[in-house]
Amino acid sequence: MGAQLYFPYFYTKQSERDALIDVAPHLGGLQRVFPILEPYTPPNDLTKLLDTFLAAGVRTHLVVNPTRGAFQTLSAQAAFPTATAPYVAQLSLVIPTMHVFTGTTASDVSGFLAAYPNREVAFVVLGAGLPPKDFATALGSRVPRVFISPGVNVTDYRTGLAGVPVVALESRFTTVTNALYPSESPFCLDPKSYSPDGFGDFTILNPKPPRYPSGGGNGAGAVAVHMTFQDPTSNELRVQHFLSDDRIAGAPPVGVKLLQAIAHLDAEQAKTTPGRFLASPGFNTLHQFGVDGHETNLGKSKQQQLSHHVFTVAKTL
């Protein structure tokens, strides 16, 4: 791995998986974007994504001890390693990644390292129960990348894990009621300005773990399309928010409201700030929806927005 790396965190919902499948051909080669996948739905849902990554030469972090979403029972947790073993065994595909909880012990860390000898591994610290000095002792001579979740003091880990790359998973995207989004908002500094350890976040998603099963979501009021772009002056990344004209729950259908938001996106790209948004698979698909008058749904719209975001960050590195 070289400098300026990006580590976007995903809960592997369908829109997220489909977005990564769409953008995978643009991530391989000199890879700068390394997704972190927390399995949140049954293991079989990962098959198409992991097969796509393997074919495209994309390496990904995969949490191998999931406990949320579909893995809240001991039986589901016990079955996961067997279901994913053929993929985890692929060194060119998976970087085994361990969730560290408040109750995780140094022995648990040592056991994980012993299970994956002589290969790159990583940790995601969800709870600060294991003191960094004990964590460091358990690591021994291994130098994994350690991701720190929001709410955990990243400075403590950077101090306690000297020589280990520690990356904060930042909450960069503020989610509000759609009708309240400003015209645009900052996302991050110039991607090339971060340290060689890299930078991470939850893309344009809410960092809070989603409900499982999902359900709900009918009768949306205003709908929004969030599109990432790089400011040509500062090189910072920003997100422009395009809202539907109709903002009352119910009629017209969500698909009509999305077409309204896409019309504003197309006007921005063609007239107001020509070429602001890169011609990503996500942008091109949204544009084509508008040309065709195709009424899509919130999940498909989110897929295109995420695909565009990851593509845009990759192109800036």
Describe this structure in words.
This protein is an alpha/beta fold and 317 residues long. The protein contains 9 helices and 11 strands. The protein has helices at 14-23, 47-56, 74-88, 106-115, 132-139, 154-160, 254-272, 281-292, 298-316; strands at residues 6-10, 36-37, 60-63, 94-100, 122-125, 145-148, 166-170, 184-188, 199-201, 224-230, 237-243. The longest helix is centred in the last third of the chain and has 19 residues, at 254-272. The protein is 35% helix and 17% strand. The two termini are 13 Å apart.
Cα shape: globular
Can you summarize the main beta sheet? 8 strands, parallel, barrel
* Total of helices: 9
Strand order of the largest sheet: 1-2-3-4-5-6-7-9
List the helices and strands and how they pair.
Layout: E1 6-10, H1 14-23, E2 36-37, H2 47-56, E3 60-63, H3 74-88, E4 94-100, H4 106-115, E5 122-125, H5 132-139, E6 145-148, H6 154-160, E7 166-170, E8 184-188, E9 199-201, E10 224-230, E11 237-243, H7 254-272, H8 281-292, H9 298-316
Parallel strand pairs: 1-2, 1-9, 2-3, 3-4, 4-5, 5-6, 6-7, 7-9
Antiparallel strand pairs: 8-11, 10-11
Helix pairs in contact: 1-2, 1-9, 4-5, 5-6, 7-8, 8-9
